[in-house]
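testing teh design pipeline on a random one, pls ignore if ur not involved
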């Protein structure tokens, strides 16, 4: 096995090799760090890299292995953490000059759980400023480049996580998703991303955005996502909204299949504009799902779909307005799109917010009722393939000071509802840019979404395809 192949090896394989003492945690970490050092000038996926700490942790992991200690399921496996998640003694700067130099004195529960499972932290991956947009650029860290085409959007706000996964910076990458921020980078970078049911993975500090932020895995295989989600999930007292129940055994039940499941496909949710190449690839993937379930996939136009755009275009500025406190000192160093979004909410009242929130809750109920007739809904993940990262919208799309959501209408509905939603790669455009299929399940059916993803992955494997920016084996 050469060094590139080792960097692309799934966590499920790495875990077995480490336990069998066929490979050392130190070798794994040092090899991945060497790849990061070689490629980072091109990608810029890390906000903060902690190589010395990672090697020290790898040496401790190796000593535990050789000493016969009890090992966690992720023992010796590299992992990255998004720079919106707090990490003890490691900067958490949120892509913003307003937080530059901020070093928390505690780990978020998800970081603690990954460490307890044996994972070795490599550092913090880049994010758009406060995670506000779906483009891989921030005032603090600059552009994070798409591994498939330099200078192009890698997606956001889990920008660095998506790029790192595609580039072979180890197998496991933590993302978070408030309106598509796990699924969009997974789509643009050609990897797997899962936004689990809201509260499945505890989020601390709890986000002040009406319970829409989810933490999820970003990986190159579905099995790795199942393994990582298993380690991160479960109730936690610091997140009062976390799910009470502990998760089922995702890795053990991944291959149970989805025969007999009822699957619907909506190419546009009744309102969304979608680029023709993206639409064609997603439609073909949706049709292929018929073989997996043993029956036809029905094309639908859900009645609730058309109500989403007005809701998000109120709630997104309303929630970003929490950052208005930084404008007097930092406006000139903040993302101008974020500033425009914040200013959109000027003059809105609490009564305005409550009226829209009431409509949003009715929207969520309508989606839940609709899912009584379906197990899964398939849609495009994003309306477009990657475009230049200095743009907020593709050049040929309608322009707006802050509205990047125009090309991402498929993700935020399921942040509103808290339902699990995954992105699986389903093909490439004529330019060789990845496209993702979104699989949405009923609330709490994370296992079902994982099983559907695994079934599609088995029938249409993608893991062997690597981006051209990165050296091939």
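output:
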């Amino acid at each position: 096995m050469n060094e590139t192949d080792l960097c692309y090896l799934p966590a499920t394989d790495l875990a077995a090799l480490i336990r069998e003492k066929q490979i050392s945690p130190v070798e794994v970490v040092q090899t991945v760090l060497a790849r990061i050092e070689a490629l980072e000038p091109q990608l810029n996926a890390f906000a903060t890299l902690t190589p010395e700490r990672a090697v020290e942790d790898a040496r401790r992991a190796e000593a535990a292995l050789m000493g016969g200690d009890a090992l966690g399921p992720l023992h010796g496996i590299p992992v990255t953490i998004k720079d919106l998640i707090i990490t003890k003694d490691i900067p958490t700067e949120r892509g913003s000059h307003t937080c530059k130099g901020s070093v928390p004195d505690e780990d978020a529960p998800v970081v603690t759980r990954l460490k307890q499972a044996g994972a070795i932290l490599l550092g913090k991956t880049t994010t758009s400023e406060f995670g506000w947009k779906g483009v891989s650029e921030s005032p603090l860290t600059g552009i994070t480049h798409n591994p498939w085409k330099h200078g192009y959007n890698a997606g956001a706000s889990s920008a660095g996580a998506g790029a790192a996964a595609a580039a072979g910076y180890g197998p496991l990458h933590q993302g978070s998703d408030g309106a598509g921020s796990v699924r969009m980078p997974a789509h643009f970078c050609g990897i797997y991303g899962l936004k689990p049911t809201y509260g499945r993975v505890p989020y601390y500090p709890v986000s002040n955005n009406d319970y829409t932020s989810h933490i999820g895995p970003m990986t190159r295989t579905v099995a790795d996502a199942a393994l990582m989600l298993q380690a991160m999930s479960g109730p936690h007292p610091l997140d009062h909204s976390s799910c009470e129940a502990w998760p089922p055994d995702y890795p053990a039940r991944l291959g149970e299949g989805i025969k007999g499941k009822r699957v619907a496909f909506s190419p546009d949710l009744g309102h969304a504009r979608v680029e023709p190449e993206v639409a064609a690839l997603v439609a073909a993937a949706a049709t292929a799902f018929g073989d997996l379930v043993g029956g036809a996939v029905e094309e639908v136009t859900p009645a609730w779909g058309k109500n989403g755009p007005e809701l998000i275009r109120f709630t997104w500025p309303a929630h970003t307005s929490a950052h208005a406190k930084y404008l007097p000192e930092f406006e000139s160093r903040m993302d101008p799109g974020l500033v425009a979004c914040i200013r959109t909410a000027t003059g809105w009242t609490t009564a305005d917010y409550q009226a829209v929130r009431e409509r949003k809750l009715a929207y969520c109920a309508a989606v839940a009722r609709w899912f009584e007739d379906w197990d899964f809904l398939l849609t495009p993940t994003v309306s477009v393939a990657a475009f230049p990262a200095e743009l907020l919208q593709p050049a040929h799309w309608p322009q707006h000071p802050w509205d990047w959501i125009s090309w991402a209408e498929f993700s935020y509905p399921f942040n509103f509802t808290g339902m699990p939603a995954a992105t699986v790669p389903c093909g490439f455009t004529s330019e060789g840019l990845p496209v993702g299929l979104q699989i949405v399940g009923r609330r709490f059916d994370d296992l079902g979404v994982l099983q559907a993803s695994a079934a599609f992955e088995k029938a249409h494997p993608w893991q062997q395809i690597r981006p051209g920016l990165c050296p091939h084996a």
